[in-house]
Design a protein that fits this description.
five-stranded parallel β-sheet, alpha/beta, Rossmann fold, SH3 type barrels, 3 domains
């Protein structure tokens, strides 16, 4: 048993229950909450921190608040905006988990003389004798599983992480546990949006950079103009809704031509791909150690597809799908699984 744990408390019900389980198990615990007040000055931000403090008080543990606004701006916000400006569709939650929750907060864990960090993520960490290493595995509640957002973690980080919710079957069970602990947030609604944006993503980008993105043309694959778009950053591969066009047949975003400020549309059949190239790849389990079928998930909400992988160099991987996959989107992540084990993942560079 670890001597001392740092409990990451967001103010939400999941992290509260994870904390409660660890305190009840007899661990020596300290609570910590991350604030990003440069990007969220709303009352809700303060309320989250106040709720986290109340939970820590209820559990009888010390509580610290850390403002990581500077690091958050550099590692998450600026990359988020840069990706959109380069015609890509980023996933800032992956960057936040890697750099903030399991980067900067892990450093605080050491400063506070704690041995491990505890969060309310739906995932599992186990030492796997077959692979002779710590591995990341899917949560029992597969509908809530968050391993897609955690694939960048390395073995050293995994060895210092506890996910107490990994074996809990349902959200109802979480809420029942929270009620049993006497937490005031047991019925709190879940947040579904990017935490640092209140409202429209693209209004945020324009306001943050103090600039407007010019209108341009929707064109078909032959270059014929179909209408005007409202700024190229507002569109992503595979999109059909919200184009604002009256067309004789459904058309989908196939490509963003950043050089000419054109959004290229096509029929749906043209946005399926047989594979992709991914960069910045992190293998949690070396692929040569995998002896089962590998599947690929190309978006958090998407079903997995059996695939074959080929390592091009140390951090670039070619992935070929068993069946074509819809709307492979540069900037999004591809995550590989072997049954419940996360093999690794990387950033999609291009579709094949």
């Amino acid at each position: 048993m670890a001597d001392k744990l740092l409990l990451a408390l967001s103010g939400g019900v999941d992290s509260a229950v994870a904390a409660g389980l660890m305190v009840n198990a007899g661990f020596d615990c300290v609570g910590a909450t991350i604030l990003n007040t440069e990007f969220d000055t709303s009352d809700s931000c303060k309320a989250e921190a106040d709720t986290a403090k109340c939970i820590a008080n209820k559990l009888g543990i010390p509580h610290y608040v850390f403002n990581f606004s500077g690091s958050f701006r550099e590692k998450v916000i600026e990359k988020f905006i840069s990706e959109y400006e380069h015609g890509r569709t980023p996933n800032p939650c992956i960057e936040c988990n890697y750099y903030m929750k399991f980067g900067t907060l892990l450093e605080k864990m050491t400063e506070l003389s704690c041995d491990k960090i505890v969060t309310g993520h739906y995932a599992k960490v186990e030492y796997n004798e077959k692979y002779d290493r710590y591995v990341l595995k899917r949560a029992r509640n597969t509908a809530k599983d968050q391993t897609y957002f955690l694939y960048r973690l390395n073995e050293e980080q995994l060895s210092k992480i506890i996910f107490p919710l990994g074996n809990i079957e349902s959200k109802d069970e979480i809420r029942a546990l929270a009620k049993g602990f006497g937490f005031e947030n047991s019925q709190k609604k879940e947040s579904q949006d990017i935490c640092f944006i209140k409202g429209d993503y693209f209004d945020f980008i324009e306001k943050y950079g103090n600039k407007k993105y010019p209108y341009g043309n929707f064109v078909d694959t032959d270059g014929n103009i179909l209408g005007k778009h409202k700024g190229i950053i507002r569109y992503t591969i595979g999109q059909r809704k919200g184009l604002g066009l009256a067309l004789p047949e459904p058309l989908y975003v196939k490509e963003l031509d950043m050089k000419n400020n054109n959004v290229i549309l096509s029929r749906e059949t043209a946005i399926f791909s047989k594979g992709l190239i991914a960069t910045d790849f992190n293998f949690i389990v070396p692929p040569e150690n995998i002896d089962g079928e590998i599947t690929a998930k190309t978006r958090y909400t998407r079903n997995e597809t059996p695939c074959k992988i080929e390592s091009i160099n140390n951090n670039t991987v070619k992935i070929e799908f068993e069946k074509p996959v819809r709307a492979i989107t540069p900037g999004q992540s591809v995550v590989l699984y072997c049954e419940d084990v996360v093999v690794g993942g990387g950033i999609i560079e291009t579709a094949l």
